[in-house]
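Review session, final week

We close the course with one last complete record, chosen because it touches almost every idea we covered. It is Cyclin delta-3, a protein from Arabidopsis lyrata subsp. lyrata with 341 residues. Go through it on your own first, then we will talk.
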Amino acid sequence: MNCGAAVHGRKRGLILLRVGRNFSRSFCSSSSPLSEHECFIKDIAKAQPPKHLTQLLNIFIARGKSIVSPGAKEGLLPLTIPLVRMSPGSSIALLRWPTAPPSMEMPVVEVQKHGVWFLANNVDQFIHRILVEEDVSKPEESSQEIFNAVGEAGLKLYSKGDFASSRLMDLDAYLLRKVGLFPDSLERKVIRHIENGDHVSALVATEFYTKRGNFPGFARPFAFNAKVLLKLGRSLEAKDAARGALKSSWWTLGYRYEEIARIAEWGDEQIAQYKERVTGEGKQRDIDRGKPMAQASLDEAAFLLNLASLEGTWDESLDLVAQCYKEAGLNDIAKFVLYRD
């Protein structure tokens, strides 16, 4: 998908984000200079608020979108912090990894019923991409509203005309070279190679897509690789790639679980095994085999979220997931997972 396109909406006059925007609960003290979302991230999610989060929210407002409360998490993957609802089944949010290192910024994701789609490694990268796409696709007068919404912060990321002066006529090429790595841009690159009959270049590009560290924690690159290998007639390699993808969180596949499970030749017994792993007996067996209690609890939380992703029934397992994080010593994450407006 085009992540810039994801946030287009009805045009209206720019309204700068203000503290206390009619949310059902205020997370800030009356004297706090932080926005509701920044306070929530700091006090509830126990993470560092992105420096230019307010500017991103201003972009959504300039595009006619209504900002939602960060605590409006009902029905969503519990590790997300919602920013704006794009449609009844889609929201833009930040992803709060439970065991992320302090230096790791929260990625921007699109939240759907069965999981998340990666949009950008961080808020600045997402803003940068939006500005590039706005400059490329809109006349100057209509794009100025978005640039105004970002203000001086945007000038540090992108200046109007940079794309044209780069002489890179392909938008995806510009994004990948000048802005950052984006799944949709990389996937389109692979698809173009296949359409041109250049299967070697397609495989090389897909291998780069799956390179460790490009999209940490996300299974989508490996799932996409499996589908490409299958398309190119490499069914045995596709099966291995699909099984590798399913070792990561199912809610990061970017596809329905069943689609990748078919390539992996996984049947219902795999789901049954996961369900057995989240029983007290299954967890105790792991501990008896030498797995530390904290790791066994983290694994159980991961299994519960994987199972919840199958039908998008996130709220049904909240208490159990939170209990797992408590047992793993992550009390703050447990409280964050349970929090609802």
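Two points worth writing down before the exam:
The chain is about 50% helix and 5% strand.
The two ends are 30 Å apart (CA to CA).
Good luck, everyone.
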